[in-house]
Amino acid sequence: MIPIKYNVRNLRVRWKTTLMTMLGTALLVASSCILFGLVEGLEYSLKISGDPLDLIILRKGSSNENTGGFEANKADDVLNLKGIARDENGASLAAKEMLNIAIGERANGTRNNLIIRGVQPASRKLRPDFKIVAGRDLVEGRGECIVSHSLSRRYKGAQVGGQLNFGDKEQYRVVGIFTAGGSAAESEIWADLKDVEKNTGRDGSVSCVQLRAASQADYENIQKTVNDDTQFRLAAVPETIYFENQSRSSLFLKAAGTVIAVLLTFGAMFAAANTMFAAVNSRTREIGTMRALGFSQRDILISFLGESLLLCTLGGLLGLLATLPLNLLTIETSNFSTFASVSITFRFGWTVAAVAMIMTVAMGLFGGMFPALRAVRLEVISALREL
Amino acid sequence: MKYFTYIFRNARRNPVRSVLTIASTGICMFLMMLLLSFFANKNEVTDGSKIYNRIVTMNANGFAGMVPVGRIREIVAIDGVKAATPFQWYGGKYHDQVMPFAQFAVDADCIFDILDEFTVPPAQLADFKANKDGTVIGRRLASDWNLEVGDPLPLKGDIFPVDMNLTVRGIYDGPSNRDLRMCLFRFDYLDEALKRVTMSSSSGGSLATNSARASGNAGTIFIKCKTGNGMAGLCKKIDDLYHNSEYPTRTQTEEAFGKMFGEMLGDLKNAIYGIGVAVIVSLLFVAGNAMAMAMRERTSEVAVLKAIGFSKGLVLFLVLTEAILVAGFGGALGSLGCKFFCDVVDIGRYSGGFLPFFYVPWNIAIFGLVLSLFVGFASGYFPALFAANSSVINGLRKVV
Amino acid sequence: MGEISSIILRNVHKEYHRDEFVIPVLADLDLSVAEGEYLALMGPSGSGKTTLLNLAAGLDRATKGEVIVHGQDLGHLSEAEITRWRANNVGFIFQTYNLIPVLTAFENVELPLLLTHLSRRKRRENVMTAMRIVGLHSREHHYPRQLSGGQEQRVAIARAIVTDPYLLVADEPTGDLDRTTAGEILDLLELLNREFQKTIVMVTHDPLAAARASRVLHLDKGRLVDEVIQETRVSAAS
Question: Among A320, B156, C40, C185, which is least packed by CB within 10 angstroms?
């Protein structure tokens, strides 16, 4: 076996080429990682809570809480169902919620539709990692609201102490800023349920009920009770199913992201192959010498493949590192199925690392395969004679 | 150019390297075309709607608010208005797919006078006007789902608590850069169904949970103006009319309405542009590296040229032209290849309603070409400079 | 053979700078080459003979002293001017031929003419003339890899004379050739000197090559140490 330090030294000697190839492939890997980090983040931003025992109660047939509203008295019946979990203070982990979509204006003058969610106290516990990060939580009945961190950074009036006005009737004073683990709540403005009902004139109905079951058995019971009741005409949708339905709208983006990543991988492969071919060509005499000394064709093949992998791994690592600073970046855009604002937090989890790894290995192997084969096929004598 | 033979032969000298460089440039350009065309197409739809002289009225507070359909009568009476129709987004499920294409409830009698870029065979239009459950669908939608006149088109309510069991009465056609994937059905059919549901609610309360989902909501109103000049004035007039009512309106030109959706994209636009820039920079490294490697192998040859009397400027020119040629060729392949690909493969079909159409406009393709020439120049610049300034003596001394 | 001096070197010093080291190559060199002379430079490696050649050909500049070729003081010319001067006045012949591999024999010979304003037809005439002189006009469409070593050198010589320069410089022209072929090349050089009055300055290790010259100079450690004037020249024919 040809020792790996032969490859390392060669990469170091031709450092300019090595560096340029690294930078080129790193950028392509970074682009792919950013894309997948975005797609991952988008998926995550559609989750409400992610807890497996959570249920969302919607009007039967509806697929989205924005439009799945039903009567308030039915909602109260749901809240009284047996089997709902309780928090440490004995309060029921169930909340009626009402959604409203209104036009908000960003600091740069452009507009987007914002989700205003009228909530009850338990709503917070039903979100992952809900935290007030500035100001304080709202007090019921005072026309106050809290906004997500992402929105507070971009929208006029969405800072602590600011005022959000949506038409003449809907006005809220911002008293705090919250985060919720990158979930759907991070795209929302929260106000007291009663205030939202009053302002929009919809006090007879709710958009949904969020609740957590006390146990797996309760989880199934509640589902059965709600779904089977012909009078209710409601559906108890498990969080996972609800989430799947939402993310179907992100399928197109996922597909587009994958296509782009594949294209980038090919681009990077060609770049690596170019470098490796040049490497082989400039070392024909060395290769001939090694063969003359007794190293087998397999040794040469593995050596060059190894060098290609090493080169690409360096590029891939660099690309991955370059994306790390983006890790907590949030971008705010539109959810194309609800036309409401959605804040996407980049997530560099295992998917992204896997993408980087796969790209790197693909580049290294496929990019290096042909050059390595050429190195192997060189005839010893002619290689030694080459000037 | 008398030097062209030499430049051209040099580019073909190492075919593997040239092919790989061309392939890299081509793929990156292909990708750039996709990204840039996405934005260009979106802009085209909004810019292209200027000529139709239409304005759109919606609730001032957003899509969740209602626009009473009764207002259409008032609006049509305004001087300068040719016709007006409700244009309510239905957003139903088809074959269990959520919103695979756009569905709108409209006024059958005047919709095609307002959307006058579309044509419908008169017999089909008459059929649509005569049958409440009829729908007219776009040509592309018909071919996507293999639908013909007479086929059923059942939609399940998602946003609205009613299903729409429609029958295809007509197929509309129009310019290829407009949306030919819409499903237009009758507003009165939807409205009556909604009224029935409201009245027969068995739990003794109104099921109209949200005024926007109740009957009588036009959603948005599409208005055809008599001339283009008066549009801004008309917008203001309509908004003033309803300013103090319970449902104030916001009326704007169709172009501005479209731009509004584009604005919502927000940061995503910048993210995509950022990726585009990263790809180009990467290409600079890749192409630059390839050129540098090529030049390194030709040091003695360059020295000979300079010994013979080729000036620095000439050597610079020869190397740069070679780089531009290779990159330009790759870029052309990528740009034109993408354009051709999008012309042949109807991407809009697979986008689930996200893109009504997708193609690469000529100006974007040409931009791609120019960009690849620039990449060739930028990537060849330093190797060329290096070669031009290389020492003749040292170059001749090498035994290669 | 005229007595007009074609090349004059006066008090020439040349040193190279490598990192912080100063390497002297030529020291206090005086030399005068007559027009139409055939000069051979010999000496061990590092003696400075190639450097001397480079100075005379305008490829390099003296650190001190004057280099005057055919009346032109090379020290007064800028980089661009000396490049143009080389194109018009000097022909180069190298040990390793240094032909452009992607060009045919014809195109290689044509290369220096691309720098002139001659029409395509005129260029063709000159190239064919040069190729006829070296005896290779039947091989115009061959690429260098399709030619033997001797043929490649002939093409190189044709390229060197196609602009009809005064001066030909040759750096080990027979270094890579076998005895017979070397003889043919040397015959050609001699022809150029005798029939066409080209001034030739040749660096060589080969005593047989040196024997063809009219004057042989020996260098050692950057100085002229010996000079041999040869009235009779040995030709391969005898």
Answer: B156
Residue range(s) defining the domain that contains residue B211? 61-247
- Residue B52: how many other CB atoms lie within 10 Å: 18
Tell me if C103 and B306 make a contact (CB, 8 A cut-off).
no
In a domain, B50, yes or no: no
> For residue C84, which phi and psi values (nearest 5 degrees)?
-70, -35
CB nearest to B289's CB, from A17, A62, A103: A17
Looking at the fold, whether B12 and B109 belong to one and the same domain comes out as no
Cβ-nearest to A110 among B23, B93, B263: B263
Q: How far is A208 from chain B (nearest CA, A)?
A: 11
Tens of pLDDT, residue by residue over A75-134, are 888 888 888 888 888 888 899 999 888 888 888 888 888 899 999 999 998 888 899 999
Token readout for B297 is 């192998």
Tell me the domains of chain C and their CATH numbers. Answer: 5-237 (3.40.50.300)
Predicted TM-score (pTM) above 0.90: no
CA distances from C83 to B226, C8, C60, C86 (A): 74, 19, 11, 5
Q: Are B142 and B222 in the same domain?
A: yes
Order of strands, sheet of C64-69, starting from the edge strand that comes earlier in the sequence: C21-34, C5-18, C64-69, C72-73
Same domain, B15 and B144: no
Tokens of C170: 């040759």
Count how many domains chain B has.
2
Query: CA-based Rg of chain C, rounded to a whole angstrom?
Result: 18
Regarding whether B189 and B156 lie in a shared domain, the answer is yes
Last residue of a domain, one of B220, B247, B274: B247
Q: Are B181 and B348 in contact (CB under 8 A)?
A: yes
Q: List strands edge to edge, sheet with C167-171.
A: C90-93, C167-171, C199-203, C38-42, C215-220, C223-229
Pairing of strands B103-106, C21-34: unpaired
